[in-house]
Amino acid sequence: MALGKLRKAARVILVGPPGCGKGTQSGRLLDHFKLSSISSGDLLRQNVRAKTPLGVQAESIMKSGGLVHDSIMVKLIVGELSKRGWVETRGNMASGLCLTGPLSVISKPSAPAASDCPSASFLLDGFPRTQSQAKSLDEEVQMNLVVNLDVPHDVILERIAGRLVHEPSGRVYNTTWNKPMNPGVDDITGEPLTRRSDDQPETFAKRLKAYAEATEPLLEHYDKAGVLWTVRGKTSDEITPQLDAEIQRRFA
Ligand code: ATP
Ligand code: MG
What we know:
alpha/beta, binds magnesium ion, AMP kinase activity, AK3/Ak4_mitochondrial
């Protein structure tokens, strides 16, 4: 299948339990459709590494497998969205910058206008994660596809045991399914890969619980809004072609 060119803006959220492969799918979508993305986890980890006030606040919560406070997350993500021009500071139409596509004004009173221009496409990985975060996002921009990555529980547990990451980029590998070209080092930069400290079994169990309690209910919210689409698969390689086809069907 020839991939690549979108006809209209895709504003996609990836939802799924920790370890379901959101990071992997997001990397592949970026590559296949030239989308840009924000990973809330990567953004937080960058702040932790840089020891920003926000990072210092978030670090212990992340280490314990809990959820960072909604108000911090909304500030962080909405800030990043407007920095990149994907939502507007009202009255200042970032979407007006698109030279190739028409402008569609969403009639919903709470959500401001969004650009239909394909270059205004973006993907969110890991945000929103609670009802309150979803409501805040609704007020900023109307997302038009929410992908529910439905991966069996036992597969997720197995996968986390072998997960390696390249922290600076967020690229994810697995010692069984998705090996780096050279053991222990990133394919692109050659830098060392590490294990995430919150992938330890006890912390991971807490993250799964937080997902079930706080995030899973979001699926219903987006189902009601008519934008939910569920994809099932045991491996990322089973999911990718289905996801590519769906993006192609809806936006290309
Ligand atoms: P995976 O990367 O395997 O999909 P994950 O989705 O649990 O797992 P990240 O998205 O990287 O992992 O998030 C790591 C941690 O960062 C979370 O456990 C949580 O503490 C914090 N975090 C990330 N996004 C949010 C969010 N939207 N709201 C609250 N906390 C968040
Ligand atoms: Mg992730």
